[in-house]
Specification:
CATH superfamily of the largest domain: Probable tRNA modification gtpase trme, domain 1
CATH class of the largest domain: Alpha Beta
Shape: globular
CATH topology of the largest domain: Gyrase A, domain 2
Structural class: alpha+beta
Number of strands: 20
Strand order of the largest sheet: 11-12-13-10-4-14
Helix content: 10-25%
Order of helices and strands: EHEEHEEHEEEHEEHEEEHEHHEEEEEE
Distance between the termini: 37 Å
Number of domains: 2
């Protein structure tokens, strides 16, 4: 199992460690609820250096990315970022990702840790027809997510940069905590605001320690993967392997908003067909009415006990104090306000389709 560059730091903080995507990752430090609410109310820092980073450069970089990703990469100015996905040839999703335009002909793709090898091989295969320069930079970059309403105050102190005035989904390079060449991005996976720091791995420790030291004045806490999951679920964000997969249509996942239909891309005939005709199932959010916690794989049924879908993600929301979840249901059952039931231990527990996000 791989270890993060900051593994010893997490152990010293008493983190409960666990396996995730081939890495020994910090799952919790002080408990999920405490870490979750710290991000919602103050500021938290996540070590998510398990994520993959690919550099795509050269004169053919844009052509490759337009062909292999869903969004309109041509719309990105230098310093911009966008969310999208890599569609496969059969109408599913290879992975979802962030794309940053770092320079005129240089882009950074940030992919899920569990898919690094798969994505790298697939992108190289597609590149045979284009000839862009591809570099897997994952080992040389540590990713620290600084999230929460106090994140910008902390970043101003550590970098001198007013990230609160930096537009959302942009990236700039600056010195942070005396570490040079750190990319500061106004992106994140919590819905609580803040930044993500792409730090040269050799400088990760000094930035991590500075964040925790200077962050004491802002009630900072280190946050593990468990709270990262509850935070993203409250926002209704997809997680690959749950809401997205090689066989789930991105239209069913409600990702038409990050699909640019006026271009040629991998699998377009399937995705454009799904957009025009609709899909049998749709991704929905739901809130428990009766007491219960939904979990991935639980069956969803209607009032007559007929199976209508399945839970893809579920938890007890720390912010709301009730069970919430996402899943796929038959399109006729997907309207907000529809009463459904979650099959938990042979009992049908009442829930209701809810508009996403769960919190704002």
């Amino acid at each position: 199992m791989k270890q993060l560059a900051l593994h010893k730091h997490h152990s010293a903080l008493g983190a409960k460690m666990g396996a995730f995507a081939g890495f020994d990752m910090p799952l919790t430090y002080k408990g999920v609820k405490a870490e979750h609410m710290c991000v919602r109310e103050h500021v938290g820092v996540f070590d998510v250096s398990h994520m993959g980073e690919f550099m795509v450069s050269g004169d053919k970089a844009l052509d490759l990315l337009q062909h292999t990703t869903s969004n309109n990469v041509a719309a990105l100015a230098v310093g911009d970022a966008q969310y999208g996905y890599m569609p496969n040839a059969t109408g599913g999703v290879v992975d979802d990702l962030l794309i940053y335009r770092l320079d005129e002909n240089q882009y950074m793709l940030v992919v899920n840790a569990s898919n690094i090898d798969k994505d790298w091989n697939w992108l190289n295969e597609q590149n045979n027809a284009f000839g862009a320069t591809l570099t897997n930079a994952s080992a040389g970059i540590a990713l620290l997510a600084v999230q929460g309403p106090k994140a910008h105050d902390l970043m101003r102190e550590l970098s001198g940069v007013d990230t609160s005035s930096q537009k959302g989904f942009t990236i700039v390079q600056h010195t942070v905590a005396d570490a040079a060449d750190v990319w500061i991005a106004t992106t994140g996976y919590t819905g609580a605001g803040g930044v993500e720091l792409y730090v040269p791995t050799a400088q990760a420790a000094q930035v991590w320690e500075a964040l925790l030291t200077k962050g004491e004045a802002y009630h900072i806490q280190p946050v593990g993967l468990a709270a990262r999951d509850t935070l993203r679920l409250e926002m209704g964000y997809c997680l690959y392997g749950h809401e997205l997969s090689d066989t789930i249509s991105p239209i069913a996942a409600r990702l038409a908003w990050c699909t640019h239909f006026d271009k040629t891309f991998v699998g377009e005939e399937h995705i454009k067909k799904d957009k025009a005709e609709g899909t049998a199932q749709l991704r929905v959010g739901f809130t428990m009415i009766d007491r219960g916690i939904p979990r991935q794989g639980y069956e969803l049924v209607d009032a007559n006990g007929n199976s209508i879908g399945e839970v893809t993600s579920g938890t007890s929301s720390p912010s709301l104090g009730v069970g919430i979840g996402m899943g796929y249901v038959n399109s006729v059952n997907a309207k907000v306000g529809t009463e459904i039931f979650v099959r938990i231990r042979e009992k049908n527990i009442k829930a209701q389709i809810t508009r996403l996000p769960f919190v704002s």
